[in-house]
Specification:
disordered C terminus; 5 domains; 420 residues; 9% strand; DUF222; 9 strands; mainly alpha; HNH_nuc; 16 helices; three-stranded antiparallel beta sheet; DUF222 domain-containing protein
Amino acid sequence: MDSIADLSSASTAQLVEAAAAIFTELAQRSAPEAGSACMELAEELATAIDQAEYVLAGLIAVVDRTGEMKHWGLPSTQAWLRCRMGMREGRAKERITLARQLPRLERVTKQMATGDLSYGYAATIADAVHRLNDDDCATAEDILLQAAGEGLSAGKVARLGNTIHDRVTERTGTDQPPEDARRGYERSWLAVSRSLDGGCYVKGWLNPEDTAILDGTLAPLAKPAGTDDRRDLAERTAAALTTVLSGGHRNTRITVITHLETLTGDDQPGWLRDGTPIPAAQVRRLALTARVSPLLLSADHEPLYLGHAVRIATSGQRRVLETLYDTCAVHGCEVPGFLCEVDHVNGWALGDSPTDIDKLTLCCGWHNRWKHTHPDQIQITKTDGRYRYRALPPDGIARSKRGSVIDPTANPWHDQHLAA
């Protein structure tokens, strides 16, 4: 009873710290030898983890609602989960959807808090109802919870959720695509079915070769178009396909970097922007039909000036920067370089940064504005001719238990990946 009283009087921060200490100690323990004991402990621990996921969803919801991550130089809740917690994009989106939908799911909330509903079922239900209005959401919640209680797997509950969405869509008058025809897997196929509102449904299957072509064409165009882009991957992919069909992708470039000697017969390979080597013979074949742009480098392999000190960077300078930077210069930001803005490192307004190639970098629109309004929260370093920005926490805030400030965009794996 004393321990319960202590827990009930503890703050949320104290409880989180206690839970972290317990899991730290558990991580040092070896699993019991008995399989039955491990099975029982694993089920009990899984329930505790599911309840922890409920708590985490509540915390994420507040951060998402208040926009706190933006004060730390992170443009979105998803960016925060990816950079600070190392989540994959799909996992981050799943947790955000759960955090946003729980206020509409009263029974899911109660059962998840008591450990009677697993995180897997809760996340599945949240994803199933996020496109429904409040009335349909309540009905769908009852149906999906009943299905979960009857022992249907999370996958079957997800399919039931899709069926509910289809029925709701049908009730509101939206036409539905026909059932997929049974086909083999030897040839790619696409089926286009018109809807009553003038749109269409596209379904199909691509073989591995066609999939590689699709990924190579659409994936670069399906990146978020700036940090305020709230479209999901499916919506961005559709926009990328439209861009390709309208011919807007023709300005997309593949940059191959090479020495002049390679073009005249030397065996030195060229390389892509990510460092992938390209055999010398292939470089010369590509050069026959490609636009070749000269890029002068100093003895330290640093790009020299390409233009005068004017406000707007030249197209030549931008080509150099897109060669140097695959993404925004801010650590952890994954906006592609070709979608970024040219940033004056020391700030054009201050008069300290002319539009010279060694004073410029690429920065996404959101971080470019954030850097201007939060100059004291940017740490700038330069390595091998490339600038790297780190967004620092607001003044007076430290999150390390040892009192040191944690870099909100630092990601050790990401640093190792860049170094590699």
